[in-house]
Every structure is written in structure tokens, then in C-alpha cells.
Amino acid sequence: MKTVVIGAGLAGLVAATRLAQEGADVVLATKGLGGLPTSQGTIDVWGYRDGKRVEAPLDAVAAAPAGHPYAAIGVGAVKDGLAWLAEHLPDWLTGDAAANVWLPTAVGALRPTCLCQPGMLAGAGATRVVIVGLARLKDFQAALIAGNLTRTGRVEARAITIDIPARSGEADSSALTYARAADEPGFAAHLAAAIAPSLGSGEAVGLPAILGLHTPGVGRDLADRLGHPVFEIPLPPPSVAGLRLNDALTTLAKAAGVRVILGSPVTGLKAEGDRVRSVTLASAGHDRDLVADVFVLATGGFETGALALDSYGTVTETALGLPVRVPDGDLIGADYWEAQPLFAAGCAVDVSMRVLDAGGAVVHPNLYAIGGVLAGAQRWKEKSGDGIAVGSAMKAVAAIMGGER
Amino acid sequence: MSLDFAGHEFARASLDHCVKCTICETQCPVAAVTPAYPGPKYIGPQAERFRHGLSVDHSLDYCSSCGICTLSCPQGVKIAELNSQARAVMKADHMPLRDQLISRTTVMGMFMTPVAPLANMALGISPLRVIVEKTVGVHRHAPMPHACSQSFMSWWKKRPEKPEGPRGVVVFFHGCAGGYFEVETSKKTIEVLEHLGFKVLVPKQGCCGLAEQSNGLFDRASASVLKLCDDLRAAGKDLTIISSSGSCTGMLKHEAHEIMGVSDERLRDVGTRVRDVMEFLWELHEAGELPEDFPRIDLTVPYHAPCQLKSQGMGMPALDVLGLIPGLTVVESGRACCGIAGTYGLKREKYAVAQAVGKPLFDMVRATNPHLALCDTETCRWQISQSSGVPTVHPISLVHVAYGLSELRQLIPAGA
Predict the structure, then answer these.
(1) Domain at B6-91: CATH architecture
(2) Which residue of A has its CA nearest to B25?
(3) Interface pTM, i.e. ipTM
(4) How far is A191 from chain B (nearest CA, A)?
């Protein structure tokens, strides 16, 4: 079976890899890298509901209201997706799908997530911590983080700052430059020597997520040297934690036989009857028709340009011009922190993840939509985007390979 | 005209799409190895807001124009193009003599071919290279092309004309390197096309101007590319134009338009008709028109997709095509760039950066097969061959073997 997946975020990478593992011929077409390099490198499933913390994310998924992507995806596909990720990225993801953990953030809040990186785990539930800042890394302000963590009332935190250069000749290094330095042998020993004198007994050590870009175990090495638990706190982009997942999943996809076409947008489709025959790839010089049996749209939401809002209030799906479900009434509310109806706009799908029109009929029997383009969720407020991406990818692949076309 | 365009037109069109996500910075191979270059976002979309036609930061010159930033950008910002334009403006009033010289690829070939043994010997003399480094600024260890004693055109003209093939007619675009230095690649491409049943036309043709463009000589480059379009159009209307010079293909497909603003019907016509040879073979495969009864080739070989091929946004057709040959395992390098970036890695002040950029690739190539590597563009092949010590050829060479037009032992020495 020939398949084309459009988009290389979490949803697209998982769907493409799963399809290839199931024996499909897969082309993954993407106009640029997906969103993972900007992510926290964790897998959120459901973090907040009705303003309250969610302790059991899968229970929240099971209780999703009609119209929410999880209602179509179902708890089984989300569970399968989490298990698949943990199995395939053992170096970078761990956790109990049934329970959220609360991890310190780069502004000193405690954020709920479901799967996290092994090197972050010691941050969950630590009550006495030292936050270690690096003098040349401006995206990680140790005093701010320690102060805010202490204000949560759950943690007693203090800050220290050490000065270890990532490379010579640079006073202002990015987290990525530090992570590349930490991939080299010897860096953990330098860190340990600088941190050890400042530690008191029973303290956990919080560092920016720079402990190796592609080398797992740097944090464990550091913890062994210090004799204290060590945890990483993910940073704003360039997010090393996010890049780890992106690179690992991309490598997995290619190893499974996925052919990646990077750098060209998909700009339309050609149909034969109700079936999609090909999508149009705007490659340099000339357009190219990617012909396949099945197509999976995984282009994301407003943040990637997959959905667009014009000045008349019209929302469109920009790659294929598919029908979009838009909430009634005002799309943007006055309170910035409230759920914005606009963000619930997107493609409506059936339980196989096939795109539906306004009347609820399947638009093309061989066209599926997954991830951020799906209608019905307030991802940023619910912290539900990763679970929707992974769950919808698993659901679509099961439908495609199970012959539900 | 081109420089005016660079100063204030296209550069800003995509600028506001930048959301400062820094994905380009994470992918930049130059920023990864030197603090001298602060990264594509910093020097591109960020600095651009302050330029007003003038440069605010000369570290811009350390951009190698590999284009990986544009390729990776999820928002469609033309970061590399923006930086190439800004550099052209920055260098306009003090263009180094060296950059004017090394961008004249055709002239180099024309002078070296008649005296090939002498030219090759001269390039191998260390004291001479030291003098060249000191006076001209081309690094003493930089990879240099190997002159052939017969140019491609002189081979082509001495060849008996073939009858029209059953598949129709295509045009071959050899590029400067394919005309003078990488003559074997050009010959093999033509032999494969003829084997498939095409009649190949080769009009007299000049340079695409890519080296001039990447050195900021936009006016000269624009004239070169339009002259080339006239040359290629002279072969016939609506014919597919096929090239084994991956980077020159990119110049015709998009770079001349997107970087220099050349908006000319002749360029549009040629740019939509031109195909990289591996892309063309894959199109035949997809149409069910490629004979694929290949014999088994038991070989594992590294393949590096060059930046200017990747930036055409067509995936890696060489990998796809070679994947049709049973027994052959082609391992994609997965490394960003070889470092040379056309003429960047030749320059005295950039040589060390280029070597550091390429190092992970050289290591990977040596570890995968110490006797043979594959890459689609000429200067990248010279860089990989010289810096890894592994002979590097165009992927068409293996297709040539698979169709029985040559033997594997001609690529890999016996006993290796």
C-alpha cells in the first residue's frame, strides 16, 4: 500500500513510522521540521480540566465530551500510543500512563505531564532542591526558578550559579551548544567538580536540560559522581529535550523505511470520484503529484500555518482546502487566559480519523487527519496536544491497515 | 538591478513569518562548530530588521549558504536567501579579487584542460599552494578539481550521432564541472539515458553563475544564468532538460529567482523543465517506465545528499533509485553538510570551519566503506574524497554498473 503522510511533527512522525512498520510504502512530505524541537520533550495527555489538575490523564480521556478529538480517538489508542513511544524511545521517555507527574519548569512552576524523560524524573516530588544556573546560559535563571518553586509551598529550593564554558570564545551560549559539549566525555566531571562543594545532604540537583543532545545517561553519570539525585528542567527553544525526541523519532522513521521529503509544502489535492488520487508537492522548479492509496494530513494548527484565519473571520485548512469545523459566536474572547473558541477550530473526523464535512459525511474515504489540525480541543489550556497527536496517529494507522477505508 | 533587488525587495517578503522558534539555529552546521557565526536566525530575520540596506554584523560572511536553515524552517522563511542577499550588499564595494576569480568556473576549466597534466601537477606542489594561499587567499589544503585531458564537449563532438531513440529526445545540461572536471559523470549520465532509449541533445552551453551568485556577484551571475537559458532553449521547445550537476540544477530551478530576483520567462521555462538525473529516473520509476531487472550488487556504500540538492525539496531520489538494485545497501549519511558549500571551504579564513563542519561526515563515510562513497555534486565530492580519503562518485555511476554499462571493479579496486 502506498501512503503519503503530510507533516513531520509528533503525529506525522508516529503515523509514518507505524505505517512503515506495518509494511506500507511511506512518503513523509513536510515543508519544514515539525514542532518537536520547540517542545518540552515530554508527552502531555491531559494536564488540567475545568481549572483543576488532572491526576489520572487516561480517565480524563475516557470522559472526553462529544466533539473533543479524544472522543473519536478513544482511550485505547492513546494508551497504545504511549506504550509504543515508551517502547521505541526507551532512552528518552518513561512514565506511568495512568498517572501524571509534576515537573519543575524554567520559570519555577510545577507542570503536569504524562511521559517524561528519564533525566527529568527526579524533579517530580523532590522537596529539597538546589537549582544550578550556568553563568553563560541566559535562558535559565536559577534564582527566579528557585524562588518560584519555593512559593508553590511544595518545594524548598535555593539557587547557585556556576561558570563552565560550553566552548572557548563564547560568553553567551545556547542550551544546544551546552548539550553538544555535554555529549563529549569529561563534561559531566567538570560539572560535578563545580557543583559538589555547594551541596547539602538530601538535596536534589536541578539543571537546565543540557545534559547531552544525543547521549543518554549524562545525567545519571553526574548523579553518580555527586551522590545526589539530578534532574533536568526543559528550556524554551532551542529545546534540547524536544530535539532529542525529534531526532530519535526521525531516525526511527527513516530506519523503518520512510522516505522523507523535507522543504516543500503540499498545496492541494487531485481527486478521482470521492477518492484522493494525489497531493501536489510544490518542490523547487515544478509541482509534483504524490500519488498514493492513502493520505494522512498531520500539518498542525494555527501555529504552523496549517489553519489560517483571515480578516473576515473565515478559518481555512491551508494545504488541501478541507472543510473546517468552527465554533459558533465570537472566536476570540476578552480574557487572554480563558479558552479561546478559535483554537477549537479544525477538521472534524470520524472514529477512523477520516475528515468529515459539515453534514457529518466522510469527504474522501482515503484521507485521514491527525494531530493539531483536529477540531475540538483547547490544547494549550488542557495540555492535551501530545496525547491527541499520538492517539490519533495510532487510531488512523489501525484503520488504514485494518482496511477500514 | 539584481543588487537593488537584494537590498530591499524579496528579502523582506518572508521576514514576518519568522516566529523566532530557533529551529534553523539548531540545524545550522556552521554555528555548531564556531562561535564566529551566531546562527541563521540571529544574522537573518533578526538582524534584517536593523539593516536598512546596510549590514549590522559582518559575521554574516561566515554563513556558507548551505540553505539548511530555509529547508528546516516550518514557517517558510527564506533565511538563507535573505542572508545571501545581505552578503551581496555587504561585499558590493569591496569584493575580494579572490572571490571574483574562484567564481569563474568555466574559465578555470578552459585554461586547465589543455594543460591537464601540468595543471594537476601544479596544484599538487605544496610551495606553490602556499604562495597561492598567501596571495590569493585559497587555502593550501583546500580540495581542487582534477583537470581532465579531454573536455566533455570534445568527447561528445567526436562521438558518432545516435539515431532517435524509442523514448524521444532529452537535453543534457553538463554544468562547468561536468564539462571540464567531472567528465566521466557526464558521459555515464548520457550513456544511461541512451541505454534507456532516449536520444540526447547537448547544445553548446555556458555557466549557470552559481559560484558568482554565492560570492555575491549578482549582476554577473544573472547574466550567466540567462545566457545559459538561451543556450538550453536552443536545443528545442518543451524538452526535458537533464543534469548530473545537482547544484547547477538548483540554480536554474529556484536560486536565480529566489536569491537574485531574476524574473524572466526564459528562466521560468528552463527552471520548470530541468530535472536532476536521479530525480528523472525516479519519475520514470513512478510512471512504471524504468527497466528494473537489475543484477545483484552486493555492496554497502555511504551516500551524502548535498545541501543544494536537498534544498530542491524533492527528497533524496538517488536513495530511492539505488534502493531498486538488489543487494545494494546505501546508507544515508544523516550529516548536515560536507563543509565546502561551493567555494566557501576553499577560502583561507574559512577552511578550518569547513573541515570542522564536514568532520562527522568524513568519519561516517570512512566507517561505512573506505573504498567508495556517493554524492550528487562535484565540489562536495572533491571535499569528501580529499578529506575522508574515500573516492567519491556520482550515484549515476552505480546505475551505470547496474545496467551493465561498466563494471563495479572500475569503481572499487580489486581486493578492496
Answers:
(1) Orthogonal Bundle (1.10)
(2) A238
(3) 0.94
(4) 21
